[in-house]
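Q: Hi! First time doing this. I have a protein sequence and I read that you can turn it into a structure. Is that right? Here it is:
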Amino acid sequence: MTSSQKKALKTNLIGYSFVVPNFIGYFIFIFIPVCFSFVLSVMKWDGSDAPMQFVGLENFAKLFRDSTFIISLQNTVWYAVFTVPLTLVAALLIAVLLNSKIKGMVAYRTAFFFPYVASLVAVGAVWNMLFQPEFGPINEFLKWIGIANPPKWCASTDWAMWVIIIVSVWKYMGYYMVVYLAALQGISGDLYEAASIDGATGIKKLWYITIPMLTPTTFFVVIMLTIQCFKVFDLIYVMTGGGPGRATNVLVNHIYNAAFVDFKFGYASASALILFAIVLVVTLIQMRGERKFTDFV
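A: Yes, that's right. Below is the predicted 3D structure, encoded as structure tokens:
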């Protein structure tokens, strides 16, 4: 073996030494459980020493006869339909505003990004306190401006999901603001200079230059937000626990309760596969739409 081959082998081994631990972790903690969930989806098992019982597609048939599953699916879609566009618009507008050279720009960017890295438990506790029906600051302010009976927020079946949406937008818009800021840095300043010479206003620059140039980034953000919305669990678990009643019970809550509260692991695995299929279909549709739009442009 020549010295160049030895050097190449050494370089490859160094690279593999970084990749292999991650691959092993992925194989043990993700690949094997996912494969096992496919097996469990056609089984009846409570996690005990009792043997698994093959039930075929019975678990999937039960899903669509289960009112809790249907409500959880509706809640998840409702949450995604409002959270995705609101987060996207908020992140884009903040990114455009903070892309200009203003005093204290770094501090503003940090302030908007901070909620994303803040402890989710702390975030949930603080917002629950703000939305507290009896003495929370938000309802106290509403009473001060003349609203005698403000909403019960997290204690109301009509308002609980809106609270989750508001907190989700607040928490995650900072992350996608950074994504948009990175994309804005790649837009040539010559385009804005030419538009200024032609007499374009700031709104027209945003509509005819910024937004079209950010199309690939926007598709990426929409895909990531959609997947994130369908996987939402932690924020709801901390703030409402899926309540009141089933008002904020989403698919992942339903899967968690089926598996770790009712110990119906086969049924929970079937629910998880339905969630996987929904996310996959939505992602493929969005990716296909992105390619068509890119080809058209």
